[in-house]
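Supplementary notes for students who missed Thursday's class. We covered one full example, reproduced here. Read the sequence, then the structure, then the short commentary at the end.
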Amino acid sequence: MIRPVGSKGYLGILAILFVALALGSGCQQAKPPLSPKAAIFAKEVQAAIDRIGPPLAGPVARKDAPAVQKALVKAFSVCADACEGMFYNVFILDQEGILTAVYPPAVVKALQFSNYTAVKKAFAEKKPNQSILYQPDGTPTYIIYVPLIEKNEVAGILALGFEGNQVREKRGVGEKEFLSLEFKAPVLK
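Structure (token representation):
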């Protein structure tokens, strides 16, 4: 037989609900701490993002492909020592997700990346995220997609590509840990 809940019953239910809500977030699994090697890798990559990103936002926002390429080459000349051997490839996407520049410099085909989940996420959330793409031979390529923000709008994406096996072997950062790293969009000065 079901009895109607009296005022004390409602108070009891509300108390249980409040306790569950208060403790609910405590049941989530905490992120495991980064390994020392991953922390160093993340710090070095963030420093490179902070050096490379700001000079690119303006030319990307203006959709000036030659100026984007020139700014990309100049940014890498400024961080030559710190960036040496760090990246496998660097590319710039415009607001539509179209490839506009690469480093090392090369002829750029108008490739479309707007349908990539990580690119969509970087545009939507205005914060970096990463993915792993696999080459036909199975070699992983780690990629960080960094939004270039100009006047509070994402002007384009700075994508940093790393040869996954080298990051794992030389830097000690595997796929799962790479995907758990957190980066910040560069602050324009």
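Commentary. The chain has a mean pLDDT of 81. The longest helix spans residues 7-24. If anything here is unclear, bring it to office hours.
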